[in-house]
Amino acid sequence: MGVVIPLEDNKNKQASVKPLVDLTLSDMERVNQLILSKAGSDVQMIPEVANHLISSGGKRLRPMLTLAAASMFGYEGDGHIKLATSVEFMHTATLLHDDVVDESDLRRGKSTARTIWGNQASVLVGDFLLGQAFRMMVDVGSIDALDVLSTAASVIAEGEVLQLSVAKNMETTEDDYLQIIRAKTAALFAAASEVGPIVAGGSKADRNALKSYGTNLGLAFQLVDDVLDYGGTSSDLGKNVGDDFREGKITLPVILSYRRGTPQDRAFWREAIEGGASDAANLEKALGLIRRYGGLTDTIARAKHYGTIARDALAPLPASPWKSALVEVIDFCIDRVS
Amino acid sequence: MGVVIPLEDNKNKQASVKPLVDLTLSDMERVNQLILSKAGSDVQMIPEVANHLISSGGKRLRPMLTLAAASMFGYEGDGHIKLATSVEFMHTATLLHDDVVDESDLRRGKSTARTIWGNQASVLVGDFLLGQAFRMMVDVGSIDALDVLSTAASVIAEGEVLQLSVAKNMETTEDDYLQIIRAKTAALFAAASEVGPIVAGGSKADRNALKSYGTNLGLAFQLVDDVLDYGGTSSDLGKNVGDDFREGKITLPVILSYRRGTPQDRAFWREAIEGGASDAANLEKALGLIRRYGGLTDTIARAKHYGTIARDALAPLPASPWKSALVEVIDFCIDRVS
């Protein structure tokens, strides 16, 4: 008898978000309808500002997580549609406020709302979307889901303030940084995933599995985003390379390169990030240092580490197309960078 | 037999907030403790920014409304403490965001958070307080209270955007303006009052009575605020006279004076509000026009009209010290201006 040698075809295939997109297609149509309806208002400026960002081509990964995480536990009501829409509104509100906080002019290759309608509209429409998000959650009526999502709202804001407090401080450690992205990014991924089993009546173990999956997927996602900010190209990203550098934002590639560098390298980083010497020549030099000290490759290695934890979190759950799609999204998020 | 002639002593006595303050004293101590605890965070900047505003001497009228509105229906749990704190946090978050939107440098005579810590911290700490407010509401566990307060959060933001959309448009009518203050101010007064009977298990009629009371008290309160902005003195208010004028904010005194004025007067208002010609000489002229056309006295008359509706809303409820205190607060709010 011959021995079957696994060909591991999958290892060579680029991971894709397509299975998740296909599985959630009809639900996402309902989410998109609800987004348009709940971003509506007689106050014309609200749908204008909201739709500018909503229609700007984000992947809507977070609401897809909620839909898949509910469906994999057999949920058949419509609460997951409302929760998924709430999650996307929380995300959109955060982006509107982030652009004000970061004074950003471009997001996903388009002018930010604040450059078109002003900081004022961005702050207030963000507040409106957050209010609408809570109304939809209340409408679903699950106190557990409300607890998870309202806690995420606090934690996200806390993470953003923490990031602001350590801004331009080169002594930020990898642990400090992890604490920030755990709050500002991973908390919403975790909540988006955990409310799936909550609305579907899953067990405490199911909730924990999805929460852990979401947390670690979110960490991997943010780390890869940080690499893309230094390694992607402007046309790929709709974002100029070096935005984080120019804003003096400290991300893991910078932390690694700073800590691994010579005293002269560290003096350069302090001048660039703390002193604001972030012109094109210094960005070029920064990119050189980041590459020399493995700042990008090792940040990707960290992302893979969290990706593995996310995969293991789902491991005990029964096999299903939903589970496979969620697992494949981990590699998809990480492969964005390669 | 002699006829007893009512002396109506009360009519001559200045209305006071004191009965409400006295009745809610021990509950407000618990609210103040909870405010400090829930505005706390390991991220040091959060309590710094939050406490700057929280300790700046606001009257905390809104949480007192919640406490009184729960106690008058015999409530004896601690849900009203959490809801009152949520209401105050929603209010504080709105103030933090308002200062960014209005680019204000002073509030209650103190530098605004945004001038000390920047717009960024004001936006994000506001978001954090809003998240904490929702967590406390969720903790109380009443879906009805959550519904009322989350709806208020949306409506408030919608009102602020509406105000932004009509900013500097002199054709704003009194009705437009009422729609704005009904949303941006009265909605929170209404919600703060309505959650009292909700948490206390009051009837639908009780809820409606308190909602109507809060709405109309809020309208009266805002109208008097608008009068104070033109008529108060800097030392009384901790706010410079004419802030609204300089910001091109259209309030009822201006609307009345514009609509009642001559074509020349209207040209002046357009130049001042729409064209930004709001220097000291023009403020002086504006004050003269507002007085000539009864802009302040008639705005106070409108406030009294809503005050009467608020009083009648409570009329069917049984007499109690709580009810008397809430009724007296109506006149207290209006008397601020005299």
TrEMBL record, chains A, B:
<keyword id="KW-0460">Magnesium</keyword>
<comment type="similarity">
    <text>Belongs to the FPP/GGPP synthase family.</text>
</comment>
<keyword id="KW-0479">Metal-binding</keyword>
<keyword id="KW-0808">Transferase</keyword>
<dbReference type="InterPro" id="IPR033749">
    <property type="entry name" value="Polyprenyl_synt_CS"/>
</dbReference>
<comment type="function">
    <text>Supplies octaprenyl diphosphate, the precursor for the side chain of the isoprenoid quinones ubiquinone and menaquinone.</text>
</comment>
<protein>
    <recommendedName>
        <fullName>Octaprenyl diphosphate synthase</fullName>
        <ecNumber>2.5.1.90</ecNumber>
    </recommendedName>
</protein>
<dbReference type="InterPro" id="IPR000092">
    <property type="entry name" value="Polyprenyl_synt"/>
</dbReference>
<dbReference type="GO" id="GO:0008299">
    <property type="term" value="P:isoprenoid biosynthetic process"/>
</dbReference>
<dbReference type="InterPro" id="IPR008949">
    <property type="entry name" value="Isoprenoid_synthase_dom_sf"/>
</dbReference>
<dbReference type="GO" id="GO:0046872">
    <property type="term" value="F:metal ion binding"/>
</dbReference>
<dbReference type="GO" id="GO:0106350">
    <property type="term" value="F:all-trans-octaprenyl-diphosphate synthase activity"/>
</dbReference>
<dbReference type="Pfam" id="PF00348">
    <property type="entry name" value="polyprenyl_synt"/>
</dbReference>
